């Protein structure tokens, strides 16, 4: 039995074949029928599994709380891709960027230079990417702040990192349970136990 039939696909369907040297960041806008939230890492397409309830609620908590607390010079988005270079286009779960980064309503990605904070909520299928690959990519592109969010008994635990620009690598600055309190990139207070509330 062919792979297409095994997964309920039409036998005539063909998966996109990468060109010599792999895909480029701009190809994500041109390839037909890509699943939502497809990323590009080192020229390879990365497809994601369906989100868990924890993942979705964690994104909502951080998006709404950060949007409420961010200064006017910053904006908050979720699940928008960031072009780090020609062969890497990642999609943070939540991102804080400089206000005015939008080129227009049809934008599909942002530049890494506009990104202030990238937040990744770890899923079962994304552990290696979120714990190792993505932080290295964000740091290499000069993104100043990175948070990794893990689930512990239904609540988020936030691992906070800050870029050391001299070595283009993140340094851990804290692990937060129950409450997140920071002064950078702006004053932030988040009740992590509010993840299941409709309004944090």
UniProtKB/TrEMBL annotation:
Region Disordered: list its residue ranges: 1-22
Positions of the Putative restriction endonuclease domain = 26-193
**What protein name is recorded for this chain?**
Putative restriction endonuclease domain-containing protein
